[in-house]
Write a structure and sequence with these properties.
Blueprint lengths: L2 H33 L8 H8 L2 H7 L5 H9 L8 H14 L6 H16 L1 H4 L3 H22 L4 H28 L10 H13 L3 H7 L6 H10 L7 H15 L10 H14 L3 H7 L1 H24 L20 E2 L8 E2 L3
Antiparallel strand pairs: 1-2
């Protein structure tokens, strides 16, 4: 497989997953805003902080409020990670590799793109309906991909992009409530606190599965444990890390065993760290700090995947630990070797 094809497949799924998760972010904030009494901490500005876009938001919307936050996350042209821009970037990547993806995949992402860009009736709907339709369109793309794409390297790189993005966004949406919106001690366990945790679970599509797994009261520790450490829920961090590890073993399988390299070490250590830990230990040592460390590990993991599979050998800056930008590198990605060989475009 050409490196540029693997790169496009990876980013198509990261962008679609990001768009779906941002719609969940906005939905949970809408629900929190309705439940928050006057004078309580409002959820909109922390949402920007959790998304990691504070500087850009302040530049585009100085002193912006709730409406500006929603505009920034959903439709703002100046925000590369807005929902509309994510779908546009996913569609552009899909357009460049139409001969690799299935017709059904292209039709779904193309339909969603034009719905967001040219269908004014869509934007006349209530915000909750807009977000719900966006989420359904993204989920339909996942379903079409899994139903029509062969389980070869194309599917593996698609899955890899989706899982890395999902693990990152699960931690961020938990961080919004657990750290940025942590109530005062007297509010912990109250009605408002429980409503916010329920909204958080719903935003992650986790409420029903959580209730089946945890029969007791909804507590911060139980919610954090489920979203971070549950081995069966498909949006938990542990589940995503296990599937990332499996996928990288398939993509970079070796015919001759050897010592693990930086990529193998990082994904193995990260998986072990989140598979063999208890939620009590994470909370005692600082859950926010643990989440920050995980997000840094995911960023490093992306960087190693990028340098291994998506750029030509020798394009790393020898003086810095950065990757030289390459628009269309023609590099073979094989399933039997860690080496990259040049191939014609």
């Amino acid at each position: 497989m050409l490196s540029r094809v693997a790169d496009s497949l990876y980013w198509i799924n990261r962008y679609v997953e990001r768009a779906e998760n941002i719609s969940r972010f906005v939905e949970v904030s809408e629900a929190m805003a309705l439940d928050c009494p006057p004078g309580s901490a409002e959820p909109w500005q922390p949402l920007i902080d959790a998304s990691g876009d504070r500087d850009l938001f302040d530049e585009l919307y100085p002193g912006g409020g709730a409406e500006q936050v929603v505009e920034f996350l959903v439709r703002a042209e100046g925000n590369p990670s807005s929902i509309v821009n994510c779908i546009a970037l996913a569609r552009e990547n899909a357009r460049q590799i139409r001969d690799v993806i299935t017709t059904e995949m292209w039709e779904q992402i193309n339909d969603l793109y034009w719905t967001l860009l040219e269908n004014e009736t869509f934007w006349d709907q209530p915000p909750q309906e807009q977000l719900r339709e966006i989420r359904r369109g993204c989920q339909l793309f996942y379903g079409v991909t899994d139903a029509t794409l062969s389980r070869d390297l194309s599917w593996q790189f698609s899955r890899l992009g989706r899982l890395i993005e999902r693990a990152d966004k699960t931690t961020r949406i938990l961080d919004v409530k657990y750290f940025l919106l942590l109530p005062s001690p007297e509010e912990v366990g109250g009605v408002l606190d429980e409503l916010q945790w329920i909204s958080l679970l719903r935003s992650a599509g986790a409420y029903q599965m959580f209730r089946q797994s945890e029969l007791g009261v909804i507590s911060p520790k139980a919610v954090a444990s489920f979203l971070l450490l549950d081995p069966a829920f498909p949006r938990s961090v542990r589940y995503c890390l296990e599937r990332i590890h499996e996928t990288l073993q398939v993509v970079g399988g070796r015919s001759v065993p050897g010592a693990p390299d930086a990529l193998e070490c990082l994904v193995g250590l990260t998986l072990a760290r989140w598979s063999y830990t208890k939620i009590d230990a994470l909370i005692a040592n600082g859950l926010h700090e643990a989440i920050d460390d995980l997000q840094q590990d995911l960023n490093n993991l992306h960087g190693l995947i990028h340098s291994r599979y998506f750029v030509l050998p020798g394009l790393m800056n020898p003086d810095e630990d950065t990757i030289a930008p390459v628009a269309q590198a023609s590099v073979s990605v094989t399933a039997t070797s860690h080496d990259l060989a040049c191939a014609p475009a």
